[in-house]
Design goal:
The structure holds 2 protein chains of 2 kinds. Chain A is α/β, with parallel strands linked by helices. Chain A is built from 10 helices and 23 strands. The radius of gyration of chain A is 22 Å and the shape is globular. About 0% of the residues of chain A have low confidence. Classes of the chains: A alpha/beta, B alpha/beta. Chains A and B meet through α8 and α9 of A and α2, β7, α3 and β8 of B.
């Protein structure tokens, strides 16, 4: 208990100072939002592995560390960002240690589309935000979400008007920069797609230079009736990084949303995806790939709520783990009483490339309606020796053959993405990333360690 | 120099000796058939030549074009010109057929220091081979062998052989499970590849295939040894009399175990 108080104590001072300095504290609703969230965080402290939702992920390295806000001293040029730029994107919003960096950002002038920093929006026209900001992300359930809301200040604000089609993706790039003391940022994004609109948003987290950093982001994605939206979460930070992200999706009637998560980097990563299918006929695809080695810990937590009838949700996660990496697939599906004819499916497939890699996969169904179709399944295996030999026997060398098989496995996730810039970007990153994973020799499958799989229909 | 020289080859799998001293010499231009009852070691021989690593060679040597084949990895053997058509072709989801074949061809070209084949040059050649094996080009847009029927998988093996143009083609029970139409197409593909520069080793349980691919030599493998060799008429004799008599004979002649 004393450690919990100590942990919270670290943040108390920071919060008091933050509350004093934040220019927008004059907005009573915003002040209340932050204060309530901080109070909630003080009540709960960080979660422990005794919490069911955090069973497989120990966040004490985050809780133990005293983080400060990054001081933006270094000046960057656009050249520094070249490796992370997506050419052709509709907009690139760059955040350095969580703060919007206007000189590094650009945005095409698109009718019906508003893309700017949340901070600017709060300063200039906060009334547009009040209806949505903090209305969906749940500070009661999740301490990280509460902490993010307490320090809510900057991030991206994207608003796409009714029936507007955003042809190219909006790229939100979060860069944590080198620092001697551990830094934290709490990016807060609000993305609103009105009825019948369409578009893609990419959230990408990268590091520049060494040093421990915590990115604790929350994105509220509000999708209107019949709108079609793709969201990409790409984690590529270095191994000293802690990354906790929450995507809270609110889907109206017949809205079609695809969430794609690509966890490649980071040391301790927790990716929460929480869609609420709040209108009839909605469709939600939750697609993910996590690739880890060394001591990476990559936790994928899904909380899929079916609140209305005739909605479908699909969770597909593929994991590739090597070294001592630890992956988690924890997918909860909640089918509320009114959500008849729900069709929910979750599938988690894993390749373990070393004896010490570990995967915890846990489906959890809570069904309160009686006419629903829910299935889940998981497999854990290795690179198939038969397939490897087949490729080699045609002249393809072992490393190339491994790379092809890994790419094929990862390709299942790529195939679920709509063709376009975002997918091309994801594919490039995956191809590059998997090269090093192909160099490892296959472990000899020990007795009783053969492929395991299970499937249930509920 | 012979293309393939197998000398006193002994192979064990998980402690069991499967091949107990095989001697076989093949010259370019020749078609040899290995026949034998189930469990005689036919497929083991094919797989060892294709360099599957799960088999342990305990004695003997294999020279391919004068080079030590047993020291080669599967991909090296393939690049040197060894090709095995699998008894059970493997399905590989996520890797396209055409892409796979072009990658294989280019890997071999690269090994030999030849230029890569680009898509423009590859396609007409590929289409011609598809036609030979009466295969639908649409099949090639799919993943390797994924969702293929048994016959399509076997034809795909011969297609790969036709594209990769090996020096030594090993057909591991390519006829098993094929109906007569598919068998004819496969045989047509194989016969089209017979040439003075190429040797073929046709491993089969049944004589039927040899009506279409007529071998120069037939070897009968029983319990890990070649117990009899002869011409194409030996296959007919086996068809008529079965393997029983030859197995009995082999048992009587078997050297006492050491």
């Amino acid at each position: 208990m004393s450690t919990a108080i100590q942990q919270v104590g670290n943040y108390l001072e920071t919060f008091t100072e933050f509350a004093k300095s934040a220019a927008d504290q004059k907005l009573p609703w915003l002040r209340k939002l932050r204060e309530d969230a901080f109070a909630r965080f003080c009540e709960t402290g960080f979660p422990t592995t005794h919490d069911e939702d955090w069973r497989f992920t120990n966040v004490s390295p985050i809780a133990r560390t005293q983080f400060v806000f990054g001081k933006q001293q270094k000046a960057f040029s656009n050249n520094d960002l070249t490796p992370w730029t997506i050419t052709g994107a509709a907009a690139q919003l760059v955040f350095i240690d969580g703060r919007f960096a206007p000189p590094l950002s650009n945005s095409a002038n698109l009718p019906g589309v508003q893309i700017r920093s949340l901070k600017d929006q709060i300063a200039s026209k906060p009334t547009d935000l009040e209806a949505h900001l903090g209305k969906y992300a749940n500070i009661q359930r999740d301490a990280f979400c509460a902490l993010n809301t307490a320090f809510l200040e900057d991030g991206a604000f994207v608003h796409v008007r009714r029936a507007t089609v955003l042809e190219q993706p909006v790229h939100l790039l979060f860069v944590s920069i080198e620092s001697e003391t551990p830094t934290m940022s709490h990016p807060r994004n609000l993305v609103v797609f009105e009825d019948e609109s369409q578009g893609t948003v990419i959230e990408e987290y990268v590091s520049m230079g060494k040093g421990a950093a915590l990115s604790n982001s929350v994105t509220e994605l509000i999708v209107g009736e019949n709108a079609t939206v793709s969201h990409y979460m790409i984690e590529r930070e270095h191994r000293d990084a802690f990354n906790v992200s929450t995507l809270r999706i609110q889907q109206a009637r017949s809205a079609n949303v695809a969430s794609h998560s690509l966890l490649l980097g980071g040391g301790l990563v927790r990716n929460n995806v929480h869609p609420v299918l709040a209108g009839a006929g909605g469709e939600c695809l939750i697609n993910g790939l996590f690739v880890g080695d060394g001591r990476q810990h990559l936790d994928n937590y899904m909380y899929v709520e079916h609140a209305k009838p005739h909605c479908s949700s699909r969770q597909f996660y593929n994991g590739i783990l090597d070294g001592h990496a630890h992956g988690v697939f924890h997918g909860r599906i909640i089918v509320h009483k009114d959500a008849q004819k729900t069709d929910a499916k979750q599938t988690n497939r894993n390749l373990l490339l070393s004896d010490d890699a570990q995967i915890d996969t846990k489906p959890q169904l809570e069904i309160y309606a009686d006419d629903v179709k829910c299935t889940h399944g998981a497999t854990i295996g290795q690179i198939e020796e038969n397939a490897l030999f087949y490729l080699q026997s045609r002249g393809i060398d072992e490393i190339s053959a491994r790379r092809l098989l890994l790419l094929a496995f990862a390709g299942e996730c790529l195939d679920r993405m709509k063709p376009g810039l975002a997918r091309d970007h994801a594919e490039r990153l995956i191809r590059k990333h998997l090269v090093s994973f192909a160099h490892h020799r296959s472990r000899t499958p020990a007795a009783g360690k053969k492929e395991r799989s299970w499937e249930e229909v509920g | 120099m012979s293309l393939l020289e197998i000398k006193n080859l002994h192979v064990t799998v998980a402690g069991h000796e499967i091949l107990k001293g095989i001697d076989l010499t093949m010259n370019a231009g020749e078609v040899h058939s290995i026949m034998g009852p189930n469990g005689s070691g036919k497929s083991t021989l094919a797989q060892v030549l294709a360099r599957r690593q799960t088999y342990e060679v305990t004695q003997g040597e294999v020279l391919f074009n004068g080079k030590d084949l047993l020291a080669m990895k599967p991909e090296e053997a393939a690049c040197e010109g060894v090709f095995m058509a699998f008894q059970y072709p493997v399905e590989i989801p996520g890797i396209g057929n055409t892409y796979f074949l072009r990658s294989a061809l280019n890997a071999i070209h690269k090994y030999r220091g030849e230029d890569e084949v680009d898509a423009v040059d590859f396609l007409p050649m590929f289409r011609e081979k598809l036609k030979l094996l009466e295969m639908d080009e649409k099949l090639m847009n799919r993943s390797v062998n994924e969702g293929f029927s048994g016959g399509e998988k076997k034809r795909n093996e011969i297609l790969q052989m036709a594209v990769l143009e090996p020096k030594l083609a090993i057909l591991d029970e390519t006829d098993s499970g094929l109906d007569i139409d598919a068998l004819r197409i496969v045989a047509k593909g194989v016969n089209a590849m017979r040439s003075a520069e190429r040797a073929m080793l046709v491993v089969t349980h049944y004589q039927r295939l040899l009506n279409y691919i007529v071998p120069d030599f037939v070897h009968v493998l029983v319990d890990g040894r070649i117990v009899r060799s002869g011409g194409a008429d030996l296959a007919l004799e086996l068809e008529e009399k079965g393997y029983g008599w030859i197995e009995d004979e082999a048992r009587q002649n078997a050297p006492a175990s050491v």
